[in-house]
Amino acid sequence: MSTVSNSTINAAMGTREWALLILLSVLWGGSFFFVGVAVTELPPLTIVTLRVGIAATALWGIALAMGLRPPKSAKVWLAFLGMGLLNNAIPFVLIVWGQTQIASGLASILNATTPVFMGAASKPCRSTRSWLPPVRLPPPRY
């Protein structure tokens, strides 16, 4: 099993970090564009199955190339299934279905507002639910 090396976190972003952020933005934004094109010809579930299937195949190849081995526990696989459904499959199906109703640009903007809405929704939950501990953010480091 491979381990992650301990490295320092840079306080400022260099050229490499900016390039990676721009690449991520192009890939992430491009997915909305391509879904917008594909949704005119394919049903949403087919698009999501292809998207998740291609990504899973690529990630399995990378993991195996790194020497990582899949877990053997059924409990772990059940957790993977739950996380995959809640974090990928269901949201992707809903986003792609939404793109049958609205433009891909608007869909990407609405998707980008998720952290804002989660922050707003978490405030009332934190004050009324004892099982959800308050989160204290550390002060910014400059």
What would the keywords be for this entry?
5 helices, 142 residues, 67% helix, mainly alpha, globular
Q: Helix- and strand-based class?
A: mainly alpha
Order of helices and strands: HHHHH
Span of the ends, CA to CA: 36 Å
Rg (C-alpha, Å) = 19 Å
Q: What is the total tally of β strands?
A: 0
Instruction: Give helix % range.
Output: 55-70%
Name the beta content range.
under 5%
The DSSP helix count reads 5
* Arithmetic mean pLDDT: 83
Q: What general outline do the C-alpha atoms trace?
A: globular
Q: Mind explaining what this structure looks like?
A:
The protein has 142 residues and is mainly α. The chain contains five helices and no strands. It is 67% helix and 0% strand.
Describe, in short, the structure shown:
The longest helix has 25 residues, at 74-98.
